[in-house]
Amino acid sequence: MHGASSPGRRRFLTTGAAVLGAAASAQLWLPGTARAAETPLPDGVFSLGVSSGDPLPDGIVLWTRLAPDPLNGGGMPDRVVPVDWELAEDQRFRKVVRRGTAQALPAFGHSVHVDVRGLRAGRTYWYRFRADGQLSRTGRTRTAPARHTSLGSLRVALASCQNWQHGYFTPYADMLDQDPDVVLFVGDYIYESAPSSAGPRRHEGTGEPYTLVQYRNRYAQYRTDPDLAEIHANAPWVVTFDDHEVDNDWAGEIPQDPDKQPHDAFVARMTAAFQAYYEHMPVRATAFPDGPHIQMYRRLEFGRLVRLNVLDTRQFRSDQVTGQAAAQDPSLTMLGAEQKQWLLDGLHDSPARWNVIASQIMMAETDILLGEGKLWYYDAWDGYQVERNALLEELRSVRNPVVLSGDRHFTMISDLKEDYADPSSRVVGAEFVATSISSNGDQDQAAFHAQWDPLRADNPHWKFIDAHRGYHLFDIDRHGIDAQVRAVDTVVGPQATPSTPAQLRVDAGKPGVRLV
Questions:
Q1: Fewer Cβ close by (within 10 Å): the C or N end of the chain?
Q2: Neighbour-count burial of 133, counting CB atoms closer than 10 A to its CB (0-12 exposed, 13-18 middle, 19+ buried)
């Protein structure tokens, strides 16, 4: 939790952890332990840095991937490589509490996922990896608060949509300065678009990725952004994907362009994309992909302060429709029956003060037709009206629901209404659609407002809209949520100046959001 006291002095000597996608060794690692003679690894095996994720009160996932030649398949020999890891209560590793050895396997790109357990709740820890005498950078992470605590506060950063070709990931430099307890990333970690010389940076490769090696190279390129690497190394992440991690606007097993991607070919592409996603994200073994399927929706608890429900709005959805009447078809689903019931059960049974839904796409209505009538974006929840409206009705009986979304490439903060067809219907919650990290580049602000401001009369639930690049920052306590829209002045260069275009507040027990 933000501002938590310094770690206590108790020292744990137990070893071991569950290692994801690889076998774990029970051997206790001591510096200088001899290894069997092997051809030395190339220099720079930790070029992709370190990260952590999915914090529990007693656990955290630690991640790295060995890749001395990251943009060309990784550059590792075709053999299993032991990777030692250790986690400590101090940055100098004088109080090591857990250590062990993971096996980095060629089949999984020599990625390493270590699920460390037996930790103390609400604590800061430091961690590092060692392979063949090479030492990674030191990472810092935090466990979730104790299960039954509702005191203190939690600082959450919300991010999405980082297109390498549209700009540098400069908002992360400011995010690092804000020191969040957890980073919530709701989709479009990479873009699958072909290389272009139109922007400040160029994608690697010669076209879109389709194979496992091609997706690995694309993820590796994104991982080399210095600001992204720093925030990964200094805060735990909770991630989910949207469409560009596979293919623009895909739904279920249907690609954007089925006339150009036959079903079997697209299934092979999904299989490659999901494995590369797993290999580069700090997620647990529950997310280990099964061919063209991956388990991504899950629930994380931050004491009794916040229950975080992370959705998957891609794998189980019906294909997008293209018209207003079709969007109101009751057979359409965004979540699928099983995930929808899981979400409702988790919302209604929650002991938490705040019930947060991480949705890749916007839930509140966006009416883009000026004046009489309505026109929607059918890839968002507006294209799945019946299921969306039923969920909004359920939120009436949920304690303090808040939806955190991405996808739009601009900030749009709204009241969630029980029935958007009735402007007088009750407010049931709040939604924060975060702007993009870099997608759309340095947008023309005047042109944006000329297009969108006239639509505000048709969308009275919108409380704030803005088109700067950046992210959202939330300070959550039992009384309310203080939200900041954090923006940067540019992403076309590697440095930027941050600002706060807006501050907003959600009060506990009072559905909706207001500017302050």
A1: C
A2: exposed
CA distance 84 to 82: 7
Is this prediction's pTM over 0.85?
A: yes
What's the CA gap between 9 and 13, in Å, rounded?
13
No. of H helices and E strands in the chain?
8, 24
What mean pLDDT value characterizes the chain?
Answer: 93
Residue carrying the six token digits 């709740």 = 121
Residue 151: pLDDT band (50, 70, 90) is confident
Residue 150 confidence (pLDDT): 85
Maximum Cα–Cα distance for the chain, whole Å?
A: 76
CB of 510 closer than 8 Å to CB of 489:
no
Other Cβ atoms closer than 10 A to 242:
26
Once rounded to an integer, what is the mean pLDDT over residues 309-316?
A: 98
Q: How far apart are the first and last CA of the chain?
A: 24
CB 51 within 8 A of CB 237: yes
Residues 6+ apart with CB under 8 A from 77: 39, 41
Q: φ, ψ for residue 367 (rounded to 5)?
A: -95, 110
Average pLDDT over residues 103-108: 98
Helix, strand, coil shares, percent, the chain, to 5: 20, 25, 55
- Amino acid making up residue 146: A
